[in-house]
Amino acid sequence: MSLPVQDGDELKAxxxxxxxxxRRGVPGCDGASLTLLQQGAPxxxxxxxxxxxALDDAQYQRSSGPCLTAMDEAxxxxxxxxxxxxxxxxxxxxxxxxxxxxxxxLPLVDGAGVIGGLNLYAQLRAAFTEESRAAAESFxxxxxxxxxxxxxxxxxxxxxxxxxxxxxxxxHALLPVLPRLPGVDCAARYHVxxxxxxxxxxxxxxxxxxxxxxxxxIGDVMGHDIAAAAAMGQLRSVLRSYAYEGSSPSVVLDRLxxxxxxxxxxxLATAIYGRLLLDPEGxxxxxxxxGHLPPLVRTPDGAVSALERAPSPLIxxxxxxxxxxxxxxxxxxxxxxxxxxxxxxxxxxERDLDDGMAVLTRSFAATDRGASTDAVCDALLAEMxxxxxxxxxxxxxxxxx
Length: 401
Known about the structure:
Layout: H1 5-25, E1 31-38, E2 41-47, H2 50-62, H3 66-73, E3 77-79, H4 89-97, E4 102-110, E5 113-122, H5 130-174, E6 184-191, E7 201-208, E8 214-221, H6 226-244, H7 249-262, E9 269-279, E10 282-290, E11 296-298, E12 304-306, E13 328-332, E14 337-341, H8 353-366, H9 373-384, E15 392-399
Antiparallel strand pairs: 1-2, 1-5, 3-4, 4-5, 6-15, 7-8, 8-9, 9-10, 10-13, 11-12, 11-14, 14-15
């Protein structure tokens, strides 16, 4: 059984320390081990030496032995002498050959029943006296606490994994299928972080507007749970509705902000909304940024630059009407590429935001300009998101010639 990475080292050390303390602290004991029942199957979590682990395994393989009987019958089992033990003949013979003469097995229980066993072995005949058994019983209670904590960790981890799967499925279902629009080539990716990490509220969108412009959006709802994924879907739908009315990017985000706060749809969110208008000279992008990372543009000569913005509050950060978000308008010549992304692409446990932005800029500049937009997205994900804990949303738009 594997333990959660964040808890495994400390808990494994505690289990190892316990069996070693049992070996030293129980009179007559030469070796000890701790068995966990996992879905009815026994497994040794800790053993004071390899011989003890081998004796446990011999019982598991045969489905017969004193430690299994102690767990099956929920009672203490004492073997006085394996040389003269008729109950588990094969296991007794193996113990005798290994120089083990006696054993003491104690069941470990919690509120639901038997969860494992504490197993003690000795080289001497009749090694476990009343004093030994009393000491072992005290250690068994400590082992029950540790195994109970381990079971709690496993249950919590399983619950997080189930929620992660549900949130991820919900998020994928809510993300759009990219439309095929004349004059642009679009690709997008949504990359789930590690399974131990919780799913967030990252999203993107591309859609045609009635006046011929193209709406582009990306955002990140704060939080890491099903509620964040659901709020992401709500924000995307509301933004698209406001954008479809033909409002400017700043108006769209201001109205979105008011609705989010009035209906408590999310605590905080970042977002970019832009209107891309194609023309014979390429395209013109008008966009508003509400606390999101700046888009990157790669021009036909291969240069990459960030479309910085004046400070602008996140969605939900200030009272409605007090944000005063501005707009920026940039000209994009034919062949330009616009990259929108969430922070999981650039920020990891090993790399801060500034370093990540610098790496992304270099990586974007280095990708093959002749490659498809899908290939560029895949290359950036491979370069930037490997080993990342957070989710990533990414949208790449290439302006046609």
